[in-house]
From TrEMBL:
Descriptive protein name: Citrate synthase
Family: Belongs to the citrate synthase family.
One of the protein's GO biological processes: tricarboxylic acid cycle
GO molecular function, one term: citrate synthase activity
Catalytic activity: oxaloacetate + acetyl-CoA + H2O = citrate + CoA + H(+)
Record-linked CDD domains: EcCS_like
Keywords, comma-separated and alphabetical: Acyltransferase, Transferase, Tricarboxylic acid cycle
Organism: Bremerella volcania
PROSITE patterns: CITRATE_SYNTHASE (PS00480)
Residues at the active site: H270, D327
Pathway the protein takes part in: Carbohydrate metabolism; tricarboxylic acid cycle; isocitrate from oxaloacetate: step 1/2
Superkingdom of this protein's organism: Bacteria
A single GO cellular-component term on record: cytoplasm
Amino acid sequence: TGYITLDEGYVNTGSTTSAITYLDGEAGILRYRGYPIEELAANCDFVEVMYLLIYGELPTEEQLTNFRNSIRRHTMLHEDMRSFYDGFPRDAHPMAILSSVVSALSTFYQDSLDPHDPQQVEVSIHRLLAKLPTIAAYSYKKSFGQPFIYPQNDLSYCENFLQMMFAVPSEPFHVDPDFVDALNLLLIVHADHEQNCSTSTVRMVGSADANLFASISAGISALWGPLHGGANEAVVNMLEEIIENGGDVDKYVELAKDKQSKVRLMGFGHRVYKNFDPRATIIKKACDRLLDKLDIKDPLFDVAQKLEHAALNDEYFVQRKLYPNVDFYSGVIYRAIGIPVQMFTVLFAMGRLPGWIAHWKEMHGSKTKRICRPRQVYTGETKREFIPIEKR
Ligand code: CMC
């Protein structure tokens, strides 16, 4: 069978070439299509970043207007899809709803499933970008029995999402511009991160020529895991637990160092970043700004800072180069906006969607595309004599 290189967890294995995101883990550099994440986060609208990732260039004003208008045309969900929500239990996790409903898009839009037809691909991209916030907000409304709020197309992408989340038909609703800015920034810093677990999943599924909806649904499932996007939810649960137990961060650090405990410091460590995670730096600053401006005192933020300090001064974390990652402070911002903890990873998915799409599209554009089919090193039994059932 030839010589097989074993690399569990793909630590050193490049699965593809890519021109989308540049990441230097030692220097803490992250760039989308060559543009530093810090500049994009400070100056862009999330929709501009979507365009940049998917089409490779920052849009001109005209391109951006056309792109926005096209997305707006697709924000509504087919009325028949609403009945799915009746079937899900009230306490269903919104990530489960998100991946199921995204997968179901391929049953409603059978006219845009061919990965080799550029026009079909284009319309499925716009449908996904437009509908994901609607699907997400409906899953939240479902969780406590409020009526769904239809998308409102004169609002921006982020405003529309917040309105669908928090408006109720009986009262006028005002979207707080500080919340819109904070959400916009969070979506931008989550928008791509090269060959992470969910993106590799999207590419893997897409490599079999599965349609875009099916591929993205698989990516959402991968993202749900607590070692990946689910960490933002796990961080807040961890911080709450620390507060409930008296706020002793040093004790928690000790617990996270003890391999027997199976406890990890959630929101800490990264496969690639070994110095700092530039996204965490941006988010922590934004967090500071928002809480300060709104005069919010969140005990979670205080505990998070103390925990960070304790870990960064501990030999175990220093030696292993474990630093706060993107998920460490994002939850504090989500909480300030009023987003409940089980929706955190859904927000991550909304941010990561253009990245997933860009990778799926890049793969299909590659002349060297092949189905992803890793090999293995077999460790099972060698050939055995078959034993008839009555003799076993
Ligand atoms: N707390 C305690 N110890 C840790 C942690 C942590 N958060 N992360 C890594 N370690 C230890 C690990 O036990 C190992 O120790 P040793 O060398 O003694 O066996 C060493 O550090 C290397 O860890 P690893 O598990 O081999 O590293 P990895 O690259 O396979 O895993 C990771 C990366 C992000 C899954 C891991 O650091 C982790 O579980 N972090 C907590 C979960 C988290 O915050 N995930 C979000 C990642 S960033 C956003 C995203 O990807 O979605």
